[in-house]
Specification:
With 383 residues, the protein is of the alpha/beta class. It has 2 domains: 11-181 and 364-381, Rossmann fold (3-Layer(aba) Sandwich); 192-362, 3-Layer(aba) Sandwich (Rossmann fold). The chain is built from 16 helices and 13 strands. It has a 7-stranded parallel beta sheet, sandwiched between helices. Strands 10-9-8-11-12-13 form a 6-stranded parallel beta sheet, with helices on both faces. Helix 10 links the parallel strand 9 (240-245) and strand 10 (264-268). Helix 1 crosses helix 16, helix 9 packs parallel to helix 10 (251-258) and helix 9 (223-234) crosses helix 14 (335-342).
Length: 383
């Protein structure tokens, strides 16, 4: 639904986040703001903490979006964060507050209900935080965030699986589904000649079949399973190369599995992710937990078929991209090896087309932003 101007004055939207570090949630926020109808909406961004390395602050400023930081540390934020945020909100006078992330959601829930407050839910709190922060800290964080969700007007979930988790496990029904979107001006397919050029620039062979996967900061990405399966199927077959981008807990173990084999490549954390996607033929994710994975959507937007574990958000991708998605069972030995070993090279053109069609129909960043804009107007019309 297209946003319609139901108010004469501009609608001030205040986005509250921890930082603008260049990670998936920040990229999604950028996509939302980039496609806002500025005749209707005025965006403001507040970050709770100082920016560190790898920040997208300059990108937001380039959109002429006011960005202010409260400069809170993790400890001082617990003590004075609410008071500091209230003072800043009074200065800005937003019509609606949109938070993103555990700390911002919790702080937002502690505010009065003078204005509507929504959040974006990107994970399964009871699973995600324990994997990231450990059973005790992660458990507490999930409890606090769930309490916050219940106090907010809407929880906008990045997948139906995330929304259903809130409904089934926590009896939270103030949910809406807004699928993550991908920027097709950044992630797009290239011609064969261009693919060969990109491979050459990356130091890769021009005629190889290239598989791409990621290594995350914790065990959720399950990269070891991908490395073992690829080694089992392709060994030292130089017609197939697996690239792991990223740094993280499992990198050294994946390197040990590769054992110096030249058909494993570990470039580490890279700024030019789109180049690696455009150079590749397939994307693999063996994740144990996701909300709606940005990396998978970016791969599909570059025309890649995707090979995914059978977690609920991946199954949702399969429903929306049936001919460009292959699913394997995390709990079945040899399942991932069987899938990647049986892929038919001749079918890749149809698979690629399916991935691109799915992005255009369901995962457009512009469409995502318009859905949020409609939600803003819907909630304000009834406030």
């Amino acid at each position: 639904m297209e946003p319609s101007s139901i108010m004469k004055k501009p609608i001030k939207i205040l986005y509250v986040v921890s930082t603008l570090k260049s990670v998936g949630p920040t990229n999604q926020l950028y996509n939302i703001i980039k496609s806002l109808d500025l005749n209707i909406f005025l965006p403001y961004v507040i970050t709770l903490s100082k920016e560190g390395e790898n920040s997208r602050l300059e990108d937001f400023l380039a959109l002429n979006v006011p960005v202010e930081s409260l400069d809170l540390s993790r400890l001082s934020g617990l003590l004075v964060g609410r008071r500091t945020l209230i003072k800043k909100i009074a200065e800005i006078g937003p019509d609606l507050i949109h938070s993103q992330g555990a700390r911002p959601d919790i702080f937002s829930s502690l505010l009065d209900s003078e204005r509507p407050r929504i959040c974006t839910v990107r994970n399964f709190p009871q699973i995600d935080y324990k994997m990231t922060y450990g059973r005790f800290i992660g458990g507490l964080l999930s409890i606090f965030q769930i309490k916050a969700f219940k106090k907010l007007d809407f929880c906008c979930c990045v997948s139906s699986a995330v929304a259903q988790n809130l409904i089934d496990f926590y009896s939270i029904n103030n949910v809406k589904v807004v699928l993550n979107g991908v920027d097709d001006e950044v992630y797009y397919p290239v011609s064969l000649d261009r693919k060969v050029t990109i491979r050459h620039n990356l130091g890769l062979g021009g005629q190889l079949r290239i598989w791409l996967s990621t290594i995350g900061k914790d065990d959720r990405k399950n990269s070891i399973a991908v490395a073992n399966a690829f080694k089992e199927v392709y060994g030292d077959d130089m017609d197939n190369v697996l690239i792991f981008i990223g740094e993280g807990k499992q990198k050294s173990e994946c390197e040990a599995i590769a054992d110096g084999s030249v058909n494993f490549v570990f470039p580490g954390k890279v700024a030019n992710v789109s180049d690696y996607l455009q150079a590749s033929d397939y994307f693999i994710s063996a994740s144990k937990a996701e909300g709606m994975p940005n990396a998978v959507l970016e791969a599909m937007s570059c025309g890649l078929p995707v090979i995914l574990s059978n977690i609920p958000p991946h199954l949702e991708v399969k429903e929306l991209n049936p001919n460009g998605t292959y699913i394997f069972d995390l709990n079945e030995d040899g399942s991932i090896s069987k899938v990647i070993g049986e892929l038919d090279r001749g079918s890749r053109e149809g698979e690629s087309r399916s991935s691109l069609n799915a992005v255009g129909r369901h995962f457009s960043s512009v469409s995502m932003s318009k859905q949020y804009q409609s939600i803003y107007e819907e909630i304000l019309s009834g406030y």
